[in-house]
């Protein structure tokens, strides 16, 4: 019997140098996830998907009847995977620190102004309005929301490979939050400000309040921000079942099983879309740059508002809390605490920071709704 290796050799020869670059990028993402532990739940499946998406086997896997094609239709094209992840995020959120300190709502809103500023910059750089909106959302550091907006607006994109670039950039910066945020916190605050102690004596929040809040926010969102209603509803329903205290099995399934399954499939599909022919272009580089600008502006906006509140409160509020008002929950809240401890190892601002962090999570969803509600009439005309 003679073994024929011509098919194997032909497959190897079908890989061009651009695909090899993408395979290397996929390996790099997996390295960061496995050995550096930067958001491994995201980077490992994205990196593995990127490798598969650039091998000859991709021809059989990415088509409508292929593995990735089926997953894309089942969970990305109809926004299912981001919504399932938001269900789990809601089941993890504790809104009591936020509800006991309403000022955090404003902090969360102002920490997302970078989204709107980046949208304007992206338009000036030549992206159309739909593309600029999706790029601006990267600043929220909220991967599922970015994927959701991407899916809603993707049919209006003109730049090849842009949807994949936006998705990968959003998740990449989520993994880099511990690297990017602390230097900005130190740069825009003084040592004295970082050392401010905050007494945690929150107003008591009743069980009725924490149950009514997600219900009322869902109703208001459905009426005024219908484009974001599915995001708001899944996030708030997850929080509702957590706060009800009577369905622990559902809560565990939402925040563990459902979230993990959706994250695996979402990461693999995002990675598979990183195909060399459309991903390696100047548009991708511009997205990476603009995403970093949006992330930095959101963090800086939160810090500046934190400094303002610090002054108005008679130096009773630590400005670092403002940096936590993005939606990288609970990572940003923990980072604010870490930077505060660098100045004073007896300074505990974690509960305040997590309140701002929860506000940022809610604000990112509302920002997506506001943007889509504003631009859809323009795009339709």
Whole-number mean pLDDT: 89
Q: Nearest-angstrom radius of gyration?
A: 22 Å
Name the quaternary structure: single chain
- How far from one another are the termini? 67 Å
% residues in beta strands: under 5%
Question: Count the strands?
Answer: 0
Helical amount among residues, as a percent range? over 70%
Assign an overall shape: globular
Spell out the helices and strands N to C. Answer: HHHHHHHHHHHHHHHHHHHHHH
Low-pLDDT parts are none
Instruction: Profile the largest sheet.
Output: none
Count of alpha/pi helices: 22
- Which class of secondary structure composition applies to the elements? mainly alpha
Structural write-up:
With 381 residues, the protein is an all-alpha fold. The protein has a domain at 95-246 and 277-380. It is built from 22 helices and no strands. The chain has helices at 6-13, 17-34, 40-52, 58-61, 67-76, 80-92, 96-99, 103-110, 113-124, 129-136, 143-153, 162-175, 177-187, 191-194, 207-224, 229-244, 248-272, 276-279, 282-312, 320-323, 331-343, 350-380. The chain starts with 5 loop residues before the first helix and ends with a helix. The mean pLDDT is 89.
Short description:
With 381 residues, the protein is mainly α.
Summarize this structure as a short list of keywords or feature phrases.
globular, mainly alpha, 381 residues
């Amino acid at each position: 019997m003679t073994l024929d290796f011509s098919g194997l050799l032909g497959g190897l020869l079908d890989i061009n140098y651009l695909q090899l670059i993408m395979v290397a990028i996929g390996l790099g993402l997996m390295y960061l996830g496995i050995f550096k532990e930067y958001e491994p739940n995201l980077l490992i499946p994205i990196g593995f998907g990127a490798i598969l998406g650039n091998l000859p086997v991709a021809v059989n896997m990415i088509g409508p009847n292929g593995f990735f094609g089926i997953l894309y239709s089942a969970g990305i094209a109809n926004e299912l995977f981001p919504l399932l992840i938001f269900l789990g995020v809601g089941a993890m959120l504790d809104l009591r620190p936020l509800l006991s300190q309403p000022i955090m709502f404003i902090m969360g809103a102002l920490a997302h102004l970078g989204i709107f500023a980046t949208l304007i910059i992206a338009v000036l750089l030549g992206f159309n309005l739909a593309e600029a909106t999706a790029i601006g959302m990267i600043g929220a550091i909220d991967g599922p929301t970015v994927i959701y907006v991407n899916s809603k607006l993707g049919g209006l994109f003109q730049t090849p490979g842009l949807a994949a670039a936006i998705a990968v950039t959003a998740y990449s910066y989520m993994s880099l939050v511990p690297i990017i945020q602390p230097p900005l916190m130190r740069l825009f605050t003084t040592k004295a400000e970082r050392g401010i102690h905050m007494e945690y004596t929150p107003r008591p929040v009743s069980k009725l309040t924490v149950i009514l809040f997600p219900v009322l926010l869902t109703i208001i969102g459905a009426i005024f921000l219908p484009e974001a209603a599915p995001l708001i509803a899944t996030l708030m329903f997850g929080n509702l079942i957590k706060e009800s205290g009577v369905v622990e099995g559902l809560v565990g399934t939402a925040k563990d099983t459902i979230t993990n399954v959706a994250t695996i499939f979402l990461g693999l599909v995002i990675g598979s879309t990183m195909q060399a022919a459309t991903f390696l272009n100047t548009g991708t580089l511009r997205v990476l740059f603009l995403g970093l600008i949006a992330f930095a502006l959101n963090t800086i906006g939160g810090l500046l508002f934190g400094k303002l509140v610090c002054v108005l409160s008679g130096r009773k509020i630590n400005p670092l809390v403002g940096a936590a008002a993005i939606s990288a929950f609970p990572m940003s809240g923990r980072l604010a605490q870490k930077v505060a401890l660098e100045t004073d190892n007896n300074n505990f601002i974690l509960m305040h920071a997590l309140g701002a962090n929860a506000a940022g999570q809610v604000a990112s969803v509302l920002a997506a709704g506001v943007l889509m509600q504003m631009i859809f009439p323009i795009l339709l005309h």
